[in-house]
Design brief:
Layout (H helix, E strand, L loop, with lengths): L1 E7 L7 H9 L4 E4 L8 E5 L2 E5 L12 E4 L4 E2 L1 H13 L8 E3 L3 E2 L2 H14 L11 H9 L12 H22 L7 H9 L2 H4 L3 E2 L1 H10 L3 E5 L23 H8 L8 E7 L2 E3 L12 H10 L11 E3 L1 E2 H11 L3 E5 L9 E10 L2 E3 L6 H5 L2 E8 L16 H14 L3 E5 L7 E3 L2
Parallel strand pairs: 1-10, 1-11, 2-5, 2-10, 5-7, 6-8, 7-9, 11-15, 14-16, 15-19
Antiparallel strand pairs: 3-4, 12-13, 16-17, 16-18, 19-20
Helix pairs in contact: 3-4, 3-5, 5-6
Bound molecules: guanosine-5'-diphosphate, 6-O-phosphoryl inosine monophosphate and magnesium ion (MG).
Magnesium ion (MG) binds next to loops.
Amino acid sequence: MSATIVLGAQWGDEGKGRVTDYFAEHADFVVRYQGGNNAGHTIIVGDQRFALSLIPSGVMYSHCTPVIASGCVVDPKVLISEMDMLISRGIDPSRLRLSGNAHMIMPYHRKLDAVMERFLGQNQIGTTKKGIGPAYTDKYSRRGIRIQDLYDPKIFADKVEVALEDANRILSRVYNQLPMKPGQIADEYLAMADRLAPHVTDTSLELWNAIQDGKEVLFEGAQGTLLDIDHGTYPFVTSSNPTAGGAVVGSGIGPKAIDRIVGVAKAYISRVGTGPFPTELRDEIGDTMIELGGEYGTVTGRRRRCGWLDLVALRYSARVNSLTEIFLTKLDILSAFDTISVATAYMSLGDRYEEFPRQQRVLYNCTPVLDNLPGWKTDISGCREYSDLPKEAQAYISYIEDSVKVPIRYISVGAERHQLIVRS
Ligand code: GDP
Ligand code: IMO
Ligand code: MG
């Protein structure tokens, strides 16, 4: 039996797609357990670049069954177009399993996401505007519409009507928008039911059976720990649980089934959208990270904010996720710097914090306490063994391990599959 969770240890975009792709070589199932098409996971194979938003990264391997579990929110149109994109590029998504219990992102969710952000003005979260927040809001207020509803057209139409009554009231009276038509939405969605039907199943049961049969199951987190609705930098978060607990709830698998929890962390850190960011660099160093690291959003194309590695946040992530190991990505980008800094603590409102502060006001006022380490200033993208790395890079890795108390078992030094160091 083997079940592994791969999750983002920072604010997303840590390289989860490439890490999942690496582990998927030996996995039978790869499962997305939360989020939706707000995610953008990049996989580079030779000169081909794939950006997946909803379909798990395991789809790249023909031996691997991709699963979208019940904790996800699914925009069916996006799912179909992602399947078509894969087919057009010679990848077969026909094995995809889709939970009938997953909630759907509806057109009014997308609309609400956009207008709510606009009305927030200066206080906006900077969402991806894919309708994620409003879809989860409907799920928790128990008027959400699930994939399984597509297969009972009468119930589906009734549910759309009820949900729209509310949504239209908000859209027209609060946000001054034209109301949407329930019949039109129902027709548009029901027209997609047949295409999705062969994929719809009880994914919790299928995963249970797989685990009983000794299959390898990999859970692919989207977003990251600091974007978690419960444990992230609320309210500047997404509306789901990317943390390890989310994998068990979102896929209907008990926690005892999980053996490994791999936290993916960039060798520096980035964030898209607004919200507190203690180690942010709004200077030339930050610009260099953005340019060399290609730090532009996979989904929205937005420039990501970048900064030095934050060990306070990484220790927090190790704790709330019970990380068993760390996969450190993009170490090659740090080759550009003479000195490499890391945050070991924060100062805020006159106090020093070694633990990630839970109070928004404290977090907002944090400035990092930095430690400076010597850089290596040589190209490491060809290194394949730990011993190939310059001693300064090895010292950087040991420093992180000493602080976080979790082993760094994998280090990537380039975006391609083989640009990787696996430590024994
Ligand atoms: P995800 O959302 O966590 O899957 O990450 P993204 O795909 O949004 O962003 C990570 C970016 O970094 C992608 O463009 C990857 O191709 C790239 N990448 C991943 N690992 C490495 C690495 O070790 N070095 C470099 N230079 N790029 C990497
Ligand atoms: P991957 O899986 C980075 C951010 C958005 C915004 C906040 C809420 O590629 O790491 P949402 O649309 O989810 O309601 O937006 O969360 N965000 C991400 N940032 N990577 C992601 O996904 C993200 N998904 C959402 O920028 O700040
Ligand atoms: Mg991404």
